Amino acid sequence: MFFLGSEANREIFSVGNSVATNALEFGVDVGHIDVTLHLGFPGSVASLWQQAGRSGRREKPSLAVYVAFQGPLDQYFMKFPKKLFRCPIECYHIDAQNQQV
């Protein structure tokens, strides 16, 4: 993680850039995001598509950029990108009988 000084922060945010965590994947409609930058695989295909879907709202064009790290999953998707785009969205199941749920 990089920490920038206050001068660098002012410059970054003065030109209309935004920085966010993966919290945007939970359905917040910001509406003016043109580009999403994904630093490493987020852990699930569903998360990646949710995050990428934050840009290009209201029928505007968008761009999603996936920057791979050295980890095995990132490197796998860089070697076989079609696997990422053809991979089904994961299904989550809740066991209603589980006492901890």
Automatic annotation (TrEMBL):
GO terms for cellular component: nucleus. Residues 19-58 form the Helicase C-terminal domain. Signal peptide: none annotated. GO terms for molecular function: 3'-5' DNA helicase activity. InterPro entries: Helicase_C-like (IPR001650), P-loop_NTPase (IPR027417). Keywords: ATP-binding, Helicase, Hydrolase, Nucleotide-binding. SUPFAM superfamilies: P-loop containing nucleoside triphosphate hydrolases (SSF52540). The keyword Membrane does not apply. GO terms for biological process: interstrand cross-link repair; nucleotide-excision repair. This is ATP-DEPENDENT HELICASE HRQ1. It comes from Salix viminalis (Common osier).
